[in-house]
Request: fold
Amino acid sequence: MLENPDAAHLRRMLATVRTIAVVGLSPRPERPSHAVARALQGFGYTVVPVNPGQSVLLGERCHRTLSDIPPEVRARIDLVDVFRDASAVAGIVDECITLSLPRLWLQDGVIDEPSALRARAAGIEVVMDRCIYRDYVNLMR
Reply:
């Protein structure tokens, strides 16, 4: 069973992360992914949007997949934040492992324990079924 990091670990993680790839970022302001990504920008994080149907979101160039992010940008990604259906998580984990991305955050309701455990076994820090915005507000403010 996957256990999420404790509050102290989450606080340290949120304090050290600088660049977040947001997979499934919606262009619609009323969607949680849009609101959370905009808030993350407001907290000082650099957001790298990932959505195959968009070219620019929140003022940043949007990428089709994590693999499509240019290497010089991808090298700065500290965390991948996922706003996709759980059925997409296995493929995202495959990309994270292949690209050696260090952290994976699966938002509220995004639950794929086998894939999360596989990511963790590959050395990726994993948070599952939690809201990064809510944790930031509760732990960092």
In short: The helical segments are 7-16, 32-42, 71-74, 89-98, 113-121, 132-140. The chain has one domain: 7-140. The chain has six helices and seven strands.
